[in-house]
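Researcher: I'd like a structural prediction for the single chain below. Treat it as a standalone chain; there are no partners to consider.
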Amino acid sequence: MRTRSLTGYREAVFFLVTNVLIVFGLVAFDNALAILQTFPSIFPEVQTLPSPLQLVKALLVPVGTYEEYRIEGMREGLARLRKKSRSFYLASGVFQGRLRIDLILLYSFCRVADDLVDDAKSISEAKHWITQMRHYLNIAYGSGHLKGQATTVEFVNDTFPPSARAALILLPTSYLSPKPLYDLLKGFETDLDFSSGGDTFPIEDEVALKTYASRVAGTVAEACIELVYHHTTSPTPEHLRQQIIRAGGLMGIALQYVNIARDIAVDARIGRVYLPTLWLQEEGLKPSDVIGDPDHCKIEGLRQRLLDNAMKIYFDAREAIEQLPLEARGPMRVAVESYMEIGRVLRKSGYKVKAGRATVPKLRRLRVAWSALDKK
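Model: Treating it as a single chain, here is the predicted structure.
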């Protein structure tokens, strides 16, 4: 009896020690992988499945050599994403490795740039920030009179507020095309036109609407796909790659249409009407009528018209997702479907509104994400 008890004790200790070792091994593996993915300056190349030797090297990197500004910039970017976009925050969790990090950094840059303009106390201050961001891009891409990453960092630190610096410094301009970023700034300039005074609003017709959506969202979608191709190894012919990037730009337009349809009341409170003026005139309305009463009965019909356009573009562009590299295909589906679900909610009467915006219940968002990942 005593022997049996002693044997049971030894087995319990054995299993305890074994499980502790497994847990510590997993923690060490996760820590090593995080170091490999976070610091490209220390580990320029990382295999999809790192070798044991590379993992050990990562664990042996002195903590003092970690780039603290990069860690802090990633934290700030993730916090912005969590606060500003629940749909994209959910989607970010299914991307992996350096692709996920760079997508978060891209979002952080776009959000910081947008906030600098929107939170400016005057039109002149907003124009100042657009000019400074354009100068920043000139330097980063070597098209200004100054070149080099050190100069970029110096310019950012001297010019921008502390809360914006990491987002600009960490933007991976070395493998992002400049055109989408310059076009994004043009979209911000359109936003400023709403404050120019007078009865004319900048979104006059569908062409102006599509141009605006392309600049503020299509550009970001194109940049996202560029990051996908940078971080994946699947061979894709250049002509097909460019075709998929263009389709991504169209999908970005569809997502922006959904955003506009959701935020009609929110935008009206700050004097902006993104519904085309021509559409309003067809209903006997003016932009000022939307600002005065964003819940006008005729506006719901225009919201649905905009969503019709969004859905058409979405259906035309979504097949391009299935041509993306396999490792990005599912996560990109989650990103798109999570946001398009907002549009589907808006299609049904009685949708929930929170802070002036229609919301998708958390359980429904999770179900949509799971279905997008599970698609064969």
